[in-house]
From TrEMBL:
This is 4-aminobutyrate aminotransferase. It comes from Onchocerca flexuosa. Belongs to the class-III pyridoxal-phosphate-dependent aminotransferase family. Coiled coil: none annotated. The keyword Transferase applies.
Length: 217
């Protein structure tokens, strides 16, 4: 049975599902297909937007033939919203807004945050520290391969897997008690979501706690 497809929506990294990554080639092909058939291509950057992947938008690293039609954002950007291609402009866009048109004060905060990101070269720092984080995690994995596997990431948006849910949850508890607050996603994944100011000094502390926590597991 055939159906028309209005839109395709994707996350650059499937966050809650276990930090699953799609390759740039996959997204390039998907974009070309949606453009060919007039399907709206929506990128959900609610988790990945704001610089944690080393670029302000994760889809910036895909080298698409044409930009997404809609990009959705929230969380780190302090405001929730979306931007869209000109051909999707509504005749009466004000009709979808609420009574107070959002919270203008949050836009002021976002403007200041963007100034700090640019002033302090935080995207470049995130790229550099992210590479070091992934490299060091792989070194830890090599001597703890019965406990962690599949280290992966983009920028400091990193993750690894553990043997089962119970082991993962116990590790998170131990790490938290040792002073490192990291999260879980999917069934067996440990994920890292540090702030953009996460630097070399923080990295060394985090790695020491990870090593210590694995030894206590």
């Amino acid at each position: 049975m055939k159906h028309d497809v209005a839109a395709v929506i994707v996350e650059p990294i499937q966050g809650e599902g276990g930090d699953n990554h799609g390759s740039p080639e996959f997204f390039q092909g998907l974009r070309d297909i949606t453009a060919k058939y007039g399907v709206v291509f929506i990128v959900d950057e609610v988790q990945t937007g704001g610089g944690g992947t080393g670029t302000f938008w994760a889809h910036d690293s895909w080298n698409l033939s044409s930009s997404p039609d809609i990009v959705v954002f929230a969380k780190k950007l302090m405001v929730s919203g979306y931007f869209y291609a000109e051909h999707l402009q509504m005749k009466e866009p004000y009709r979808i807004y609420n009574t107070w048109l959002g919270d203008p004060t949050k836009v002021i905060l976002l403007e200041k945050a963007l100034q700090v990101i640019k002033r302090d070269n935080l995207l470049e720092q995130t790229q550099r520290v992210g590479k070091a984080l992934q490299s060091k995690l792989r070194q830890i994995e090599s001597v703890n391969n019965s406990k962690i596997r599949n280290v992966r990431g983009l920028g400091t948006f990193c993750a690894f897997d553990m043997p089962d849910t119970a082991t993962r949850n116990k590790f998170l508890e131990i790490a938290g008690n040792n002073g490192l607050f990291i999260g879980g996603c999917g069934k067996v994944t440990v994920r890292f979501r540090p702030a953009l100011i996460f630097g070399d000094e923080h990295l060394e502390i985090a790695l020491d706690i990870i090593t210590k926590s694995l030894s206590e597991l």
